[in-house]
Amino acid sequence: MSGEPKMVSVNASAATALATLNLIKSRTDVSQAIQPAGTSSIDPKTSARLSPAVSDAILKIGQLVRGSQLSDLPAEHAERLRSLGTDSATRVQKPVVNDAEFQKTVMSYVKDAWTGLDGFNEALASGKVKIQRASDVKDLGYETIQYDMFKDGSLIGGAGWDTINRSFYDAQAAAGVRQGVGSIDGLDYYVTW
Asked: Could you name the domain of life of the organism this protein comes from (predicted)?
């Protein structure tokens, strides 16, 4: 067991970053660097150095594993996270999917979960359910925000909340638009029928 590398998996991003670092590390083994005879291994002119890209990757991995200091986050976010007992946090990145995958993911969820909503089944049967990315709907202002939380360098959990322009949403409802918002694994959506 001793001598074996230990990997701490914080989240999917950190695990991927650490795996990448292990690959880079195995390809840039400093002990394999050729040194001219009689030179010091700490001489900056002759010692092997990491490329700027590798150095940046190491810094990013460290941030993913330990999180960002709360003072580096937007004040409102830092205040919420501090109230939950964290001293650092990493914002969970939203997935990037193409439009077809987005539509398929959201439709798969809403067709099962929303069957009892007024008029939804009829709209579904007639093809009148419209699915949009929330970020594409002008004035909606809907976004989910998620963080992995850390205390003393250890992952202690996650927190999330959302924002929405309630005036827009309520005006749509008053105009008779049937609608719903939500997020599936970070994919924020707006559905009308």
From this structure: Bacteria
